[in-house]
Specification:
Chains A, C: Pfam families: DHO_dh (PF01180). Chains A, C: Keywords: Cytoplasm, Flavoprotein, FMN, Oxidoreductase, Pyrimidine biosynthesis. Chains A, C: Substrate binds at residues 65, 89-93, 146, 211-212. The complex is a heterotetramer, with two copies of chain A (323 residues) and two copies of chain B (273 residues). Chain A is an alpha/beta fold. Chain A has 13 helices and 16 strands. In chain A, the strands form four sheets. Chain A has an eight-stranded parallel sheet with strand order 3-16-15-10-9-8-7-4. In chain A, strands 5-6-14-11 form a four-stranded antiparallel sheet, with no helix packed on it. In chain A, a hairpin with a 2-residue loop joins β5 and β6 (86-89). In chain A, α8 (192-201) packs across α9, α9 runs parallel beside α10 and α10 crosses α12. Chain A is globular and about 50 Å long. The relative contact order of chain A is 0.16. With 273 residues, chain B is an alpha/beta fold. Chain B folds into two domains: 10-111, Beta Barrel (Elongation Factor Tu (Ef-tu), domain 3); 122-269, Nucleotide-binding domain of ferredoxin-NADP reductase (FNR) module (Rossmann fold, 3-Layer(aba) Sandwich). A seven-stranded antiparallel sheet of chain B has the order 4-3-7-1-2-6-5. Chain B is globular and about 50 Å long. Classes of the chains: A alpha/beta (323), B alpha/beta (273). The complex binds flavin-adenine dinucleotide (2 copies), flavin mononucleotide (2 copies) and FE2/S2 (inorganic) cluster (FES) (2 copies).
């Protein structure tokens, strides 16, 4: 690379994400209206950090970090490594617990006018049930059940890779809450459509996918893994084609369930590919880590792109999908 | 790149009341201080005006395959110019070292908290290797004040690449591996540091360097009842507190280096004698 | 200041792959000596194309395109699309068939002095058996059984994702040939270690991984998939961390079986990460498509890197692995 | 990139008896011929010396996120300079269009086969849109021979961006969408093409353009017994025949555009009236 000078960069027009904007293309996901089809992805948004960079309430939805019944410490550091066009993380769901969330981040977000998706973590069915029960009559607009984290030993991906365990969990949670419940799927499975079907049939109102792909990096100076947990989850642009195919396959298998597409989105164009694959909306993850306003920029770019696609825009506005 | 040296992003963000996001700035100088050690300067009025010692800046590669930020402590500020000093250790730093005045680079910052230097004291800046840059900046800022004293105590592997910069601001002692390390120096300075000073200022250690060194410094300091603040490093995902990747273990649990730190006290880290 | 060292860094020294080279760090994979631990990956090497670019016999091994009992037409075009840091392909194993291979590419490669791995494709167990029978007393040094192609409807990945079907196939092939038999695994499974174990226990002499990850791209001008087959297989640098974790996990589960690491390798450093993860050797795929001499460059870079790692080099020379 | 305009790779490869791999060359000119249509010239003595009409060159992005080659037909050769003409359709072509004289770019080529123009004939170069570049080069090479005639028959959407170049070499007829398409032109020229010529040369059509156009041209030609060669396009993985990504359906099965083609006869494609 190298040759990128200021002159070159200035020629590429950039959206001013700080300018007030009237959203032209909203959508409805599982009955919940979104200002636009772009949300933040869990684990890459914290209000205390992101609010300094842009008006977070302007996002289609804010999906917050996974919350557990009690505070979790997560994995020891280092927790991240770079990979070509992406990153590996093994945070292990460190969070201050649902009680703190209910008195701190959630009320603040609602106060600001955000549409909030609360991501739910657990090490066991009881954990998930406890968190969901506490959220059942909270101000959260939607719940996203994370059964797909590759960085915890119990719960997380071990549930999301087993349709039987997943059905049992989702049926139980369904009885606890009538809030729109999204089940977040892992791509680390042989047949994602089978897992999706299990979730849908046990009461999920929507699906979100993908969570991270299992991956790792090794430090060639030491011969040892860079991340203390050794393996972690890969995200960022590098996972984009895999995520897109997952959405495509789940949409082919389940024509009706709302789907939130996640994975490698860093532009309005990539968001649009997800919508054409059959997603109702998208979430932006790793891109926000390296460019804090990326979620807003993606939303604005998509709003512009939808202007020239009235048929797709109309479907989204009606809570429908392209395919 | 003569006129637009300041990304419109910064103006737009600050006008709207936000912290500037990732934005492009102009590189103004890249010098090699010693083999593989680079002094890197860019023009950024915002960072220059706001950075405090121990705060850092994320630099971003032009190569999108290298997505993650490269964090570097601010080393000096001169008008609108911000200077970093870094070692070439991998692909990102190698790329930055190849840059030339006039090139553009994306940055995010200033990030993180700073050393606590409110109270008048004799600040002893104990740095090792590539931990010295934030201490040069601490020296620069402390030297502008009339109410404190400051002494730099730097340990190097070999080339004493930072002495010329830090000694412009404060009294400087340094050592290289052929002679010993910063603990050797601190031992030699013990009387000076713990004894009563004419100005009545009590010592406070601000330290940055490799973890084993900082641990030794913390133990040395706490043993003598000297308050000790340590600026930590960890691999980062975002640098602004949103991803919880950059943790360090403290007595109060795992904390984020980027936003809870990078400065922690010896007590917080449990590094007490 | 700014003197010699900086200038040196600027030059980015490149290896001259055309210079005759004495390999210093060979290895032995399942009893077969390799001049160096770097091979070409199946489907990205054709003698008729690659021989014009470098001395292909200098590679550790040449793994040829999957061969089937009869010529296969593969999928209709377009068969490829770009993705961030990689590519998606859906060739669908087009090849002129094993008989042609036996009279054309194989003898030519052996004549040139290459160590040859013949990649075997099939739509059914009978297909695989027929090809392996024909190769059983050929000049091929090793066979690589491709049970992991995502781009064919029958055979390919449908076998490689099912330990029972895989065991049945490998046991049958084992009875047909005593040639070193590598089983090539897909990453598109919930538990790659379980598949690896099934292969090892049914008689595989070695494993190679990974084949491509299922992925896709959509053309936002039309809203339709770019590839005629719609989904395809992702390869290139973007899959590197996923491939590395697969090798790591299989090595943790099976300490003894030889493993060939594949996925996103485009430098000696990346090859080295695979060796530290526990691979015995590696294969270079997509990198060769965009830089025809890449496999040779990787081999030369690795040869240099191993000079400063005598312990690892000694293990490789003895046919052992780092972990 | 002022001095080393010729990558050492090429010299090393050819000295060892190999075809040059991917190598860096110097961009010498980038001009916009019409909105979004760019004429792009680079210095490459090897490609300049070896390229034949319908052969193409892979250009590579500086951005490694855009890994795959961008193939473009050679449009003209002047000494050591190789010229391409392309439309800005996506990210790669947009990046190339932003390049400036003196920039470096990686290339691989020349690749593929060429039109068959051994026998003396009246070569009718029927091009549509961005299919015209290889026909300009065919015109250039044919114009150097004394044993053939050549006529360019080009159809454009609007701006007739290539007429100025091709008419330097051969008699040129062109049309834009407001008037019709190349078939309109061919119909008008029917007598001229099928009638006996003073020089006794028989017509041979060389065509390149959008697939529907080429199909129409092939049917028009075969109906009149005129031999017709068509240069095809397909998305490519390698461009040099190793990945089998770039197939087109022929009467003999799926063939590789990059190495079996890009030129196929109307008969091979089954496009016969
Ligand atoms: C708060 C903070 C301040 C720092 N200040 C300085 C400084 O003033 N001078 C200096 O020389 N170095 C400093 N570092 C270390 C510096 O960030 C790394 O040396 C640099 O990121 C390496 O980048 P690379 O691309 O050359 O290495 P690569 O190994 O190619 O980088 C790959 C990834 O690992 C990360 N990484 C690698 N090493 C480190 C490390 N030691 N710490 C954190 N991340 C790492 C990179 O940021 C990148 O994301 C600081 C680190 C932190 C956390
Ligand atoms: C043999 C051959 C010769 C060609 N000659 C010319 C020419 O002289 N002038 C010209 O304007 N165009 C020509 N093309 C088409 C040209 O290759 C594409 O327009 C170009 O690759 C688009 O790149 P992009 O990055 O702008 O598009 P993007 O859509 O961003 O590219 C993404 C990927 O798709 C591929 N791709 C996209 N469109 C095409 C296409 N139509 N054909 C093949 N690959 C495509 C790209 O190469 C890249 O790998 C030729 C194609 C072939 C196969
Ligand atoms: C640092 C980090 C932390 C994450 N934490 C969570 C989490 O708590 N819950 C969850 O469901 N997903 C979590 N994810 C996954 C993301 O929400 C998202 O599914 C994934 O990163 C793919 O999207 P991306 O490529 O846009 O990042 C995390 C991802 C990253 C990078
Ligand atoms: C165009 C193409 C064709 C391939 N054909 C085959 C094949 O015939 N048999 C096979 O086992 N793998 C095939 N593969 C998979 C590669 O051998 C390799 O496993 C995969 O691409 C990952 O490695 P890479 O990232 O280095 O490309 C093919 C890959 C590509 C890109
Ligand atoms: S690096 Fe993301 S929270 Fe510190
Ligand atoms: S593009 Fe690879 S064979 Fe044609």
């Amino acid at each position: 690379m190298g040759g990128l000078t200021m002159e070159t960069m200035q020629r590429e027009p950039r959206i001013n994400v700080y300018e007030p904007h009237e959203w032209r293309h909203g959508t409805v996901v599982a009955g919940v209206p979104w200002k636009n089809p772009v949300g933040t992805a869990s684990g890459t948004f914290q209000l205390a950090a992101c609010r300094w960079f842009y008006d977070v309430a302007q996002m289609g939805a804010i999906c917050t970090k996974g919350v557990s019944p009690v505070p979790w410490e997560g994995n020891p550091g280092p927790r991240t490594a770079e990979c070509p066009g992406g990153m590996v993380n093994a945070v292990g769901l460190q969070n201050p617990g649902v009680d703190h969330y209910l008195v701190d981040e959630l009320p603040k977000l609602k106060q600001m006018g955000a549409t909030v998706i609360t991501n739910v973590a657990g090490h066991s069915d009881d954990d998930y049930a406890e968190v969901v029960a506490k959220l059942a009559d909270s101000a959260a607009d939607m719940l996203e059940i994370n059964v797909s984290c590759p960085n915890v030993t119990h719960g997380g991906m071990s549930v999301g890779t087993d349709p039987v365990a997943l059905s049992r969990l989702i049926e139980r949670l369904r009885r606890i809450t009538s809030k729109p419940m999204i089940v977040k799927l892992t791509p680390n499975v042989t047949d994602i459509a089978a897992i999706a079907r299990a979730a849908a049939e046990s009461g999920a109102d929507a699906l979100s996918l993908i969570n991270t792909l299992v991956g790792m990096r090794i430090d060639i100076r030491t011969g040892e893994p860079i991340i203390a947990n050794r393996t972690g989850g890969v995200s960022g642009p590098c996972v984009f084609p895999v995520a897109l195919a997952c959405v495509w396959r789940v949409r082919q298998a389940l024509p009706d369930i709302p789907i939130i597409g996640i994975g490698g989105i860093d532009s309005g164009q990539k968001a649009l590919e997800f919508l054409y694959a059959g997603a109702n909306a998208v979430e932006v993850g790793a891109a926000a880590l390296v460019d804090p306003t990326a979620p807003m920029r993606v939303a604005r770019e998509l709003d512009d792109l939808l202007d020239s696609r009235p048929e797709l825009a109309a479907k989204l506005a009606a809570g429908q999908t392209w395919r | 790149m003569s006129t637009a040296t300041f990304s419109p992003t910064v103006a737009q963000a600050t006008a709207a009341g936000y912290f500037p996001g990732r934005h492009a700035v102009e590189v103004t100088a890249v010098e090699e201080l010693a083999p593989g050690i680079v002094r890197f300067t860019f023009r950024d009025p915002y960072i220059a005006a706001h950075a405090r010692p121990a705060q850092f800046v994320n630099l971003f590669s032009h190569d999108p395959m290298r997505m993650l930020p490269r964090p570097f402590g601010v080393s000096e500020v001169d008008g609108e110019l911000v200077t970093l000093i870094f070692a070439v250790v991998g692909e990102g730093t190698a790329e930055f070292a190849r840059m030339r005045a006039g090139d553009a680079i994306d940055v995010l910052g200033p990030l993180g908290g700073s050393f606590t230097t409110k109270e008048p004291a004799h600040y002893v800046l104990v740095g090792g290797g590539l931990g010295v840059p934030p201490l040069i900046y601490a020296a620069q800022r402390l030297s502008e004040r009339g109410d404190c004293a400051a002494t730099a105590v730097f340990g190097y592997r070999d080339a004493r690449f930072a002495d010329g910069f830090v000694s412009r601001y404060v009294d400087t002692r340094s050592i290289d591996e052929s002679e010993g390390n910063v603990i050797t120096l601190l031992d030699r300075m013990e009387g000076e540091l713990t004894g009563e000073r004419a100005d009545g200022l009590r010592p406070v250690i601000l330290s940055c360097g490799p973890t084993p060194m900082m641990k030794a410094v913390a133990l040395w300091a706490t043993k003598r009842g000297i308050p000790c603040q340590l600026s930590m490093e960890q691999r980062m995902g975002c640098g602004y507190g949103t991803c919880v990747a950059c943790v360090v273990d403290t007595v109060d649990g795992r904390k984020k280096v980027c936003s809870d730190g990078p400065v922690f006290t010896a007590q917080q880290l449990g590094w007490e004698a």
